């Protein structure tokens, strides 16, 4: 269920991840549809980008939330916290990916 509104910053982050995935030939960084929603594929792609690219802003704040969210699964409160963190920092992260 999609409770958050479409975010243009998340769309930009998804586009940056998609381009990075293509340029590096790493399908694990492909966030799926560029739709402005934070779903499983976007979260997993961002987790992979964190692993591959040091120096992403807010990495420590978002990375831990993503790792916990992936373990707990969609619908958990941790999942919603991770989505909120990604939306909050999407523009800054997209700018350096």
Textual characterization of the structure:
With 97 residues, the chain is mostly helical. Helices cover 66% and strands 0% of the residues. It has four helices and no strands. Helix 2 packs across helix 3 and helix 3 runs antiparallel to helix 4. The mean pLDDT is 89.
Question: Any chance you could write out the topology, listing elements then pairs?
Answer:
Blueprint: H1 8-24, H2 40-52, H3 59-72, H4 77-96
Helix pairs in contact: 1-4, 2-3, 3-4
Q: Give the CA-based shape.
A: globular
Count of alpha and pi helical runs: 4
H/E topology pattern: HHHH
Strand content: under 5%
Summed up:
With 97 residues, the chain is mostly helical. It is built from four helices and no strands.
What are its keywords?
97 residues, mainly alpha, globular
């Amino acid at each position: 269920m999609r409770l958050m509104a479409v975010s243009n910053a998340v769309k930009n982050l998804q586009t940056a991840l998609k381009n990075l995935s293509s340029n590096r030939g790493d399908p694990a960084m492909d966030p799926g549809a560029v739709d402005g929603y934070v779903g499983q594929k976007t979260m997993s792609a961002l987790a992979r980008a964190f692993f591959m690219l040091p120096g992403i802003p807010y990495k420590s704040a978002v990375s831990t939330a993503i790792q916990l969210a992936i373990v707990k699964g969609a619908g958990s409160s941790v999942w919603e916290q991770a989505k909120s963190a990604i939306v909050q920092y999407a523009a800054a992260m997209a700018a350096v990916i």
